[in-house]
Specification:
Blueprint (H helix, E strand, L loop, with lengths): L1 H29 L1 H42 L6 H58 L3 H35 L5 H23 L1 H15 L2 H43 L4 H11 L6 H16 L1 H27 L7 H49 L1
Amino acid sequence: MKNKKKIDLKLMLSLFGAAALAILLQFFLTHLNQVDGFLKTVIGILMPFIIGAVIAYLLTPTCTRLESGLKKLLAKRKNSAGLAGGLSVLLTLLLAAVVILALLFIVVPALANSIYSILLQIPSSIRHFQNWAIELAGDNETLQNYINDLTATASTSLPAWLRNTVLPWLQTLIGGVSAGVTSVFSALYNLLVGIIVSVYLLGSRKNFARQGKKILYCVFNRKWADRILNEIRYADRMFTGFLSGRIIDSLIIGVICFIGMLILRIPNPLLISVIVGVTNIIPFFGPYIGAVPSFLPILMVSPIKSLIFLIFILILQQFDGNILGPRILGNVTGLNSFWVLFAILFFGGMFGFIGMIVGVPVFAVIYDVIRKLVNKGLAYREAQES
């Protein structure tokens, strides 16, 4: 009798939950615009905390390593754990500030100069390319006329594009001018508060982890809490391992590309090396995405150098894909090539450039959860049938 009452209660609760979910779903569908506006408002309010959480998460591995080293150095001091924790947060933020300032004051001005020099060289580069192409065409008048028409179109359309699109963007980049004064102050406010939030999160990360663990074991039973906690740890290892590995790999590839271009005397080495390094963060498609915008400026200056550049990039990417990348990353995601391709295309289509970067570890976590659930289901089915 008691078992029957329990079954009836569970059935009633299940029906109630299903009805509540159906009502919520209908509400969301009928008030989609209002819900979208509400979510955007909430995200806008929480943006400083989101920025701070992202900064803290990216800096946590460095902070943890520094804290471990400082604990050993300060082992004989009183309250060494607290002192090591505070100093590790301070040193991590100082290190991050040095890297960002180096990028702002060294790399960005050099990139701006490279872009300006490319813009100034475009008319002469078009003429140089036209002469080279006509000479290569020989006595073929049809091909010569096609080359003349093509270069004439480029000579008229490129200046307009540069004047209306590139130059305003470049002025924004160099002068720090945004679409409006309000957006500038809003972005600065979010960044400043985000940095302050990241300091608190880094300093209290262990305390927050303990509190989250308590809440987890309070809401779920021990079996499910253990499973969820293991999956959170797996997701953390996946993200930190993948993202840090991709960043290190891309940094090394960018430096190698810069040195190689200097040796081969290929023009605009810094600008192109930055493009190649940044796009290399994207798995699978990154090398091809970076090669296209890098190839065109070199082609305008020297077609022979552009061919040398393509060969160099192909060799560099083979080195990265077969030697450097596997040594740094290994098979950290556990996904085969098909699912990596699927994750990049799907999340890239949903969230753009950021989606292409984080799509692989996100999908790897989803894949791991589904794999474990399927294995559990199969084991349960076999136990029921035996």
